[in-house]
Each structure stands twice: as structure tokens, then as C-alpha cells.
């Protein structure tokens, strides 16, 4: 694809993905779900956030079309909405760490 063939849809899709990655909790959720599906309470505990924060961030990721909710009895678990997302996240992480391995200090980017 060339610059001339990038459509408004392409830009919107990448902007949506960028928005999802723009919050550390949402990024943590996506990275966790690339490993395995999870329940919101387990994800909240693993990421050290409240269940309300987790609920809000999962709603955002659902709105972006990146995760999907799967009802199971009285509970609901979450997974990545598309199998291409896990390898895409892995590759994006490799690229970012390759380009600037010392960029992040664990608290956020210092770039």
C-alpha cells in the first residue's frame, strides 16, 4: 500500500488501535489477553486496578473492536477479537524494543 492508497478507513483503524494502546491499563489487558482469555476480576487483580476501572477499560476495548466478551454461565470472560492481534502485538513490541530498547523505564516512556 502506498501513501496514495491509504484510505480513511485505514487511518481510522490504526487510530483506533493507537487509542487502545494509549492507556497503560488497556495495553496491559491486550498483552494479558494475547497469552490467554481472562475474567475481568482476574485481569483487574493481575494489573492492580479496581474492577470498575477494568470494566471501563474493557468497554473501551470492546468499542474499539479489539476484545470480545464471551458469556459463561453467570460470568463473562474476554479474549482478543481477532487471532491476528496476538502476533501483531508481539511484532509491535519487538519493533518498539528494537528501535529504542531503553525508551521505557517501567513507568511510561521517557522519549
From TrEMBL:
GO terms for biological process: response to cadmium ion; response to lead ion. InterPro entries: ArsR-like_HTH (IPR011991), HTH_ArsR_DNA-bd_dom (IPR001845), HTH_Metal-responsive_Reg (IPR052543), WH-like_DNA-bd_sf (IPR036388), WH_DNA-bd_sf (IPR036390). Pfam families: HTH_5. It comes from the Bacteria. One of its GO terms (molecular function) is cadmium ion sensor activity. Residues 6-100 form the HTH arsR-type domain. SUPFAM superfamilies: Winged helix' DNA-binding domain. This is Winged helix-turn-helix transcriptional regulator. It comes from Agromyces intestinalis.
Amino acid at each position: 500500500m502506498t501513501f496514495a492508497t491509504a484510505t480513511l478507513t485505514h487511518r481510522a483503524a490504526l487510530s483506533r488501535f493507537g487509542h487502545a494502546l494509549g492507556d497503560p491499563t488497556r495495553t496491559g489487558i491486550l498483552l494479558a489477553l494475547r497469552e490467554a482469555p481472562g475474567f475481568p476480576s482476574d485481569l483487574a487483580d493481575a494489573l492492580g486496578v479496581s474492577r470498575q476501572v477494568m470494566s471501563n477499560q474493557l468497554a473501551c476495548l470492546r468499542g474499539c473492536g479489539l476484545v470480545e466478551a464471551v458469556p459463561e454461565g453467570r460470568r463473562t470472560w474476554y479474549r482478543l477479537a481477532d487471532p491476528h492481534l496476538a502476533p501483531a502485538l508481539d511484532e509491535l513490541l519487538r519493533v518498539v524494543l528494537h528501535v529504542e530498547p531503553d525508551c521505557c523505564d517501567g513507568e511510561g516512556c521517557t522519549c
